[in-house]
Amino acid sequence: MKSKAKSENDTVGRDWGAPIVSFEEFAKLRPKLGKIVATSGGFDPIHPGHISCIIDSKKFGDTMVVIVNGDAFLTAKKGRPFQNLETRCLIVSGIVGVDYVIPFEIHNDQTVAKALSALKPDVFTKGGDRVALSTLPEAEQKAIKDNDIEVIFGIGEDKKWSSSWFLKEWDEGSGKT
Fold it and tell me: From its phi and psi, is residue 136 left (phi > 0), alpha (psi between -120 and 50) or beta?
């Protein structure tokens, strides 16, 4: 009997941790969730800095929501995603403290402004090299102001890791530079 490899679509709808929901589904749940804290990222590939930011962000609210940027975002930023959006959402859903994961795919927009406007979190956290409102894209700043979102910077470990660094080292090791 031949074994059949699982396809990428076999993971759709699985609940391996925090539920992966749409903005519409989250909006229905929101009134019962208390103070909402959100963070966002491509998480491609995920590393300890991402995880420390997510875990430490939970301290600022009752419900932790992670917005996972889509494949179009990563293609514009890096040329292509290393892992697809579904895979990255499943990985993030298994991190301690994450209550909800929201995939966010929008073409020709390198911000999470529309995600923040839809989600309207009480708190938005950023780690790594984001240290002030001036380091966030202008559209995000408008979304933050318009929705009265508190932004907290410097969450998680100092920038010791970078997905881009990992991928560059990987390409160099395989002779793809």
Answer: beta
Q: Indicate the pairing of strand 100-104 with strand 63-69.
A: parallel
Residue 21 DSSP SS3: coil
- Provide the residue-wise pLDDT of the chain in tens; the chain has 177 residues: 433 333 334 444 566 799 999 999 999 999 999 999 999 999 988 888 889 999 999 999 999 999 999 998 888 887 888 899 999 999 999 999 999 999 999 888 889 999 999 999 999 999 876 778 888 886 778 899 999 999 999 897 666 645 554 455 655 666 665
Concatenated DSSP letters for 73-98?
Answer: HHHHHHSS-SS-HHHHHHHHHTSTT-
- Quote the CATH superfamily of domain 16-26+33-158: HUPs (3.40.50.620)
What does the block give as tokens for 7?
């396809």
Beta bridge mates, 37: 64, 123
